[in-house]
Design brief:
By secondary structure, this protein is mainly α. The protein folds into two domains: about 120 residues; about 220 residues, no CATH class. Helix content is about 80%, strand content about 0%.
Length: about 375
């Protein structure tokens, strides 16, 4: 039986392979192929160490297959974002464990983003544009976007489930539960969407101002900006001659040079600023509403104890699915994560139901 470490390596092999197959830039595709080979070697080495047969070993898990399906539907930047999150989580755990046990840190523990970048830098035909493009890829919000969808649904479900159970406890599942549930859905979704709109809009305005300043510096002092860009690459470990060559090539296109300087100096990805604040707000509203509608549905068709029980059952199922979806990022056991989510959600709803029951008895008395 494969242990978790071996399965993690197999999944990484599978996903890097898929990234290579769907990458249009041949240089970057070669990086992914090499990374896939490295992960395969790790898996086979671990298997031999555990005295496991290598034949038939490379079978991806449901988690890896699901991420691949997400890649096919939404684009493989989502897969790379999630894969990088996993790599960072693994390296972080290894470093924490070594520090806890007072073991020496060798540098091999760092996440594979650095390995990917190192492979890319060693490619003979690599250009500054390709390196910049890869950097934007692994900083992609792909993994974060999937996580935001899961967590947005979770916020809506848990908050409205608790609200509905509180009102149901006070009214025995009769008057006002449906109205409170719909009001909670709308209030929560509107609050989330407004917060998202303000967040995106204010960030865009701040970054646009900083980008304008950077453009003015580029126009008034291009030689200084080129030297600055070369120094940034040198600080990342690139040899001086190669760093100077990359900077010179990037500066040939002022628009591209501006994008790179903004990213390298300010840490801003210009592509991410093109997103619509209104679109982000609507996205946030929808995700919250999807989760929030689940505990309300039974009260549309029925009342009393039956409605309460069905609401609890539907909400528990929704919580389990959310917990299972979270394992796409954490790699934890599906049953553990799903049941943990159900337990926490039911506990929150039980507290509000009990408080509602006390208030209902008090008002009735």
């Amino acid at each position: 039986m494969k242990n978790k470490s071996i399965q993690t390596e197999i999944d990484a092999w599978f996903l890097y392979q898929k990234l290579a197959e769907h990458e249009s830039d041949e240089t970057i595709a070669q990086v992914f192929k090499k990374m896939s080979d490295i992960e395969r070697g790790h898996a086979e080495a671990f298997a031999r160490k555990e005295n496991l047969p290598v034949v038939g070993l490379m079978q991806p898990s449901w988690r890896a297959k699901t991420l691949n399906l997400i890649g096919k539907i939404f684009g493989y930047n989502y897969v790379l974002g999630s894969l990088m999150d996993t790599e960072k989580g693994i390296s972080g755990a290894v470093l924490s464990q070594k520090k806890k046990n007072n073991q020496p840190v060798t540098g091999a523990e760092t996440n594979h983003v650095k390995i990917l970048r190192a492979i890319l830098e060693k490619e003979e035909k690599v250009t500054g544009a390709q390196l910049s493009r890869f950097e934007s890829r692994h900083r992609s919000v792909g993994g974060n976007a999937i996580r935001a969808a899961v967590l947005g649904g979770n916020d809506g479900l848990v908050s409205n489930f608790s609200l509905v159970m509180g009102v149901a406890g006070a009214t025995a599942g009769n008057e006002g539960v449906l109205l409170a549930g719909v009001a909670g859905l709308l209030a929560g979704a509107l609050s989330m969407s407004l917060g998202e709109w303000i967040s995106v809009k204010s960030s865009q305005e701040l970054y646009e101002n900083q980008m304008q300043v950077e453009m003015e510096e580029l126009e008034t002092n291009p030689e200084g900006e080129q030297k600055e860009l070369a120094l940034i690459y040198m600080a990342k470990g690139i040899p001086e001659d190669q760093a100077a060559q990359m900077a010179a090539e990037i500066m040939k296109d002022k628009s591209h040079a501006h994008d790179v300087l903004v990213k390298e100096e300010l840490g801003i990805n210009a592509e991410e600023l093109k997103g619509s604040a209104m679109e982000a707000a609507l996205y946030s509203f929808f995700l919250f509403a999807v989760g929030a509608i689940i505990p309300v549905l039974p009260f549309i068709f029925m009342r009393g104890t039956n409605a309460i029980l069905l609401s609890v059952a539907l909400s528990a199922a929704g919580l389990f699915l959310i917990g299972a979806a979270i394992t796409l990022f954490t790699g934890r056991n599906v049953w553990f994560s799903g049941l943990r989510q159900v337990l926490f959600g039911l506990a929150a709803a039980a507290v509000t139901f009990g408080i509602g029951k006390l208030i209902g008895v008090s008002l009735g008395g």
